[in-house]
Amino acid sequence: MAAAILEAAAQVLARAGEQASMNDVAAAAGVARATVYRYFPNRQALLDRLAEVAVTDAGARLASARIDEVEPDEGVARAVRALIDVGDYFIALAHERIRPAPEEFQAKIAGPLGRLFERGQASGAIRADVPGAWLTESLVALVVGALSATPSLGREDSVAAITSMFLDGARSRSSSATAP
């Protein structure tokens, strides 16, 4: 039951943000408001659990994408695909301005992305003048922004657009033949 409530909460919060109530979450989950409160005693408890699920899911998807085993450009595309698939959970967290537990975010998302960017910087494929932490935050923000945008693109069109937008800004200036 908690999983169904979380899924409904992610959908409702992704669309309505702070305006969404626990009643809205209950209605979307098809349960009584008291049932929501039985699992999540308050909105903050619900948001905290959404953050945990989002980070765990993103981390598992990034690990499954094996971004450390491919060239940086392909690694970024795989990372974008993995993060897009987290979907409403990321959007809900962004709308609610909830920051996941820093150590979990670092271990499961920022760490793997940071290592990808370090490899890219070492190989000259990614700009070395931009700190890896900025690249990580920028990529996550770009994914959340694209997922929140209307109209939305299909999954693979979103992956291609986000990857291209990110890499064209992150690419080493010496590797870009058309740079001004």
Question: What this model shows, in words?
Answer:
Helix content is 72%, strand content 0%. By secondary structure, the protein is mainly α. It has one domain: Tetracycline Repressor, domain 2, CATH 1.10.357.10. The longest helix is centred in the N-terminal third of the chain and has 23 residues. The protein is elongated. The N and C termini lie far apart (55 Å).
Topology:
Layout: H1 2-16, H2 22-29, H3 33-39, H4 43-65, H5 72-84, H6 88-96, H7 102-123, H8 132-148, H9 155-170
Helix content: over 70%
CATH evolutionary superfamily:
Tetracycline Repressor, domain 2
Number of domain modules? 1
**Number of discrete helical segments:** 9
CATH class: Mainly Alpha
What is the strand content? under 5%
CATH topology: Tetracycline Repressor, domain 2
Short recap of the structure:
By secondary structure, the protein is mainly alpha-helical. The chain has helices at about 1-15, 20-30, 35-40, 45-65, 70-85, 90-95, 100-125, 130-150, 155-170. The protein has nine helices and no strands.
Which features would summarize this protein structure in a list?
180 residues, 9 helices, mainly alpha, 72% helix
